[in-house]
Amino acid sequence: MAYTTINKSTDYFNTKLFTGNGGTQSLTGVGFQPDWVWLKSRSVADSHILFDAVRGVTKRLMSNAASAESTEAQEVQSFDSDGFTVGNSDNANRSSATMVSWNWKAGTGQGSSNTDGSINTTYTSANTTAGFSISKYTGTGSTGTIGHGLGAEPEVIIVKKLNSSESWFSYHKPLGNTGRLVLNATDGVATDAGYWNSTTPTSSVFSVTSNGSNNASGDTYMAYCFAPKTGYSKFGSYTGNGNADGTFVYTGFKPAWVMVKKATGAANSWFIGDNKRSPSNIVFNYLLADTSDVDESGSGQERDFLSNGFKIRNSNNGLNTSGETYIYMSCGQSLVGQNNVPCTAR
Q: Over the stretch 107-163, which tens digit does the pLDDT of each residue have?
């Protein structure tokens, strides 16, 4: 049994589905005031749009583009006690469009400067219970370290330059401290000592060199850091078997959200599934973090979300090529928490 101190996973992560009304709309039912909101239209090919409390409302990034941060007054307008408010932008609230938002809880609002590293962050909002932090910093162009505030080693770090166009840079522990993937692209893993200074993150800092994607002098960056928490979140890798009876990935909890990326072999997209768009098995629905494509629900990407992990149910290249490595990020509901309430299979 995977016991956890997180009795209610929806205090820290939740998926919200809604239909756009083309005006202003306050979305409730998230269960907390979110600090990171990731929005996507399911029915229209609009971009993924991402907002966080450290940068502040109206400040948009797009996971499927290298574009710089932009100010969008009619997209996410406020982070509310039980959700968020959107304006009349088509990307955020197109009339009659079906929408999905993925919502995470970090620390308290914008947070404060973190001075653990040689490069101080402007702000860091960290949730040590849930293993998630958001940091803003200014690059120095020199080898250094940056504090993440988690008090535990992050196994995923996603970095985005704000002030000019630059691809999303991401670190994943199974790929080593010289590896990186690009969130807005299908590229497989690339390796270079200059990405993370060939240094594994510690419980207090992660390392950078002079790479323009995460530490050019005078440029501003956001870092989203994730540390695993038993029974709530897990980040790792699996090897495909090329069979419709695919690989089972143990997480220790029933997944609520899973993102998978092929890291080796032929290039492929970032696949996102959740338990709201696909409330029962088989999980057919998927969105691609690197494209503006609509929500797909056809065959070829089948998965099951089980009480203690997820299982691939197809031999598609994007999820299950024989012998290839895939990385994943997952969060969800514990098997048994301190309240001794078990979660069941679907």
A: 988 999 999 999 999 999 999 999 999 999 999 999 999 999 999 999 999 999 999
Strand ranges across the sheet with 233-239: 233-239, 325-334, 253-262, 270-274, 287-288
Query: Is 310 in contact with 253 (CB distance < 8 Å)?
Result: no
222 lies in the same domain as 143: yes
DSSP state of 56: -
Take residue 321 and report the two structure tokens written for it. 């090529």
CA geometry: angle at 47 spanning 166 and 280, to 5°?
Answer: 120
Last residue of a domain, one of 226, 259, 280: 226
In contact, 315 and 246? CB cutoff 8 Å: yes
What is the count of structural domains for the chain? Answer: 3
Q: How far apart are CA 280 and CA 273, in angstroms?
A: 12
For 299, which DSSP code? Answer: T
**pTM, entire model:** 0.96
Cβ atoms within 10 Å, residue 55? 21
Considering the domain architecture, whether residues 88 and 155 belong to the same structural domain is answered as no
Q: Residue 93: in which H helix or E strand, if any?
A: helix 90-93
Asked whether residue 271 is assigned to any structural domain, the reply reads yes
